[in-house]
Specification:
mainly alpha, two-stranded antiparallel sheet, single chain, 2 strands
């Protein structure tokens, strides 16, 4: 049995965003238990030149919803990057999962050869659908989810590999 474009994308995004949501819940609880301002974690970063936790979540959700839309031949939904609290980040993740669940396998499958053009600041990038998913989106998506995990783990949140992978 071959793996479809839908199977390689939407379930993966939904699962990992669910795991990210659970990790953020643990982070909010950690801040509350330790009695410090949660914005410390929201604004935390691993290095001075890296983006903070809030941006890691925003970019991960952007990668997932953008990929789903582009593979389906649609314009991606746009979310303003204004989240500054754990509840706001949770809402963004939930909204993204809701969007992902609205995209059907019929809309994604067969998109292996679909031309995808990304408008970047300095130049456009053009991909075929399968290369876009496997060589651009998935590595970027996992990078930002992993970085969010690493920021929280580095700051003492009691999370481990199974929190990242999920228990499903």
């Amino acid at each position: 049995m071959s793996l479809s474009m839908y199977q390689a994308s939407i379930p993966t995004f939904v699962r990992m965003l669910g795991n990210l949501s659970a990790i953020l819940t643990k982070a909010a609880t950690y801040a509350e238990t330790k009695k410090f301002d949660p914005s410390v974690l929201i604004n935390a970063r691993l290095a001075p030149d890296m983006l903070p936790l809030s941006f890691q979540v925003q970019i991960a959700t952007d990668m997932a919803k953008g990929c789903a839309a582009r593979l389906a031949g649609k314009e991606p939904p746009s979310y303003p990057d204004t989240e500054a609290t754990f509840p706001e980040l949770q809402t963004r993740i939930a909204k993204t999962i809701e969007y992902l669940n609205s995209v059907s396998p019929a809309q994604i499958d067969g998109s292996e050869e679909r031309t995808v053009i990304l408008k970047m600041r300095t130049q456009d990038m053009q991909f075929q659908g399968q290369v876009y998913l496997l060589s651009f989106v998935l590595p970027n998506f996992y990078f930002h989810v992993t970085t969010a995990y690493a920021i929280l783990r580095h700051n003492g949140v009691d999370i481990g590999k199974m929190d990242f992978l999920g228990g499903r």
